[in-house]
Amino acid sequence: MNSIKFNTYPTPVEFYGEYYNNNIYIKRDDLTEPTLGGNKVRKLELFLAEAREKKVDYIVTYGSAQSNHCRLTVTMARKLGFKVLLILAKSDSVHYNGNFLIYDLYNTEIVWTETDKVPESIKDTLSSLLDKGHNPYFIQGGGHGDLGTHAYKLAFDEIMEQEKELELSFNKIFHASGTGTTQAGLVSGNILYNSNKEVIGISVARNNARGKEVIAESIISYLKNIHEFNYHITNELTFIDKYVGNGYAHIYPEIINTIKNVARNSSVLLDPVYTGKAYYGMLDYIKTNSISGENILFIHTGGIPLLFNYASEFKEE
Ligand SMILES: Cc1ncc(COP(=O)(O)O)c(C=O)c1O
Question: Which of these three, 85, 120, 143, is where a domain ends?
Fold first, then answer.
């Protein structure tokens, strides 16, 4: 499978500190390029390679106003010479945040859609581009799909190698889980290596039932299409919706405090929408489940530009 690499891998694994007698390590996927990176970079390296093979001229994708996937699609696709069109969901909370600055800098075409009309908007946009003689390539929101899943199976390969270098084994891997592809890739790696890690996705939006359903579908599809074997999910997937709050991008005080503590203890910045929520969830999960004596890996999936959208919430009187 081809990839257009924007980075050299592996991303570093750093020891962060001890917590309730566990060793916490952080895998720094936030250090990927371009434009302040994150987990979407690994996925887009694969999608854009396929787009180039197909000789398309337009990259079209969909997302929310805070989408890291949309921001990175714009900057990576433009670097490779593609035109980009974003289909964005209208919402009362949309304001001119950092993503829009990037879209303007790159003269990005935007089609606004009502949240309940997304499939029609995608269909109409693609057929209008075809009518105008273009050859568009559509990437599902969040980089969902077998290629996106494969990106995090490759990250799992890296983790297996890094364990050898560090001479340890991770018992648990925590990360922020949204569209579920990152988790599907990590769980697929776990299945393919027959390793006994627990991959724990902390939901940033979806409820437990929906989240698990999509992750299970992604794992089954990926293992069938890319590795040619039929897999039946028997083990429970660990997808925790307890820390979502009132929904996607709902920020509450524990998240702000967690981000402050992590920043003050290290050079690591988290964001409130994804990694801050996930990190807080991880700490609470460790404490409430009395986990002790384990090596725990937190995958920092990026999202740092979103932190600046919430600057006023961090202000201390
Ligand atoms: C910073 C960040 N972390 C985690 C995720 C979740 O990744 P996935 O959609 O693969 O579950 C996203 C997705 O939007 C993200 O932007």
Answer: 143
Helix residue ranges, H only, 167-245:
181-193, 208-227
Please name the residue whose Cα sits nearest to atom 1 of ligand 1: 303
Q: Is 142 in the pocket of ligand 1 (CB under 6 A)?
A: yes
Going along 67-146, which residue ranges are E strands?
Answer: 83-89, 109-113, 136-139
Residue 58 pLDDT: 98
User: Global pTM?
Assistant: 0.97
108 lines ligand 1 (CB under 6 A): no
Which mutation among 175, 274, 277, 306 tests ligand 1's pocket best, with the greatest number of atoms within 8 A of CB?
274
Residue 24 domain flag: yes
End-to-end CA distance of the chain, in Å? 53
Domain that holds residue 111: 41-143
**Under a CB-based contact definition with an 8 Å cutoff, are residues 139 and 219 in contact?**
no
**Centre of ligand 1 from the C-alpha of residue 155, in Å:** 14
Supply the mean pLDDT for the chain.
Answer: 96
Is 132 found in the same domain as 73? yes
For range 67-86, the mean pLDDT: 97
Indicate if 28 and 49 belong to the same structural domain: no
Same domain, 110 and 52: yes
Instruction: Work out the pLDDT band at 92, boundaries 50, 70, 90.
Output: confident
Per the domain annotation, does 7 fall within a domain?
no
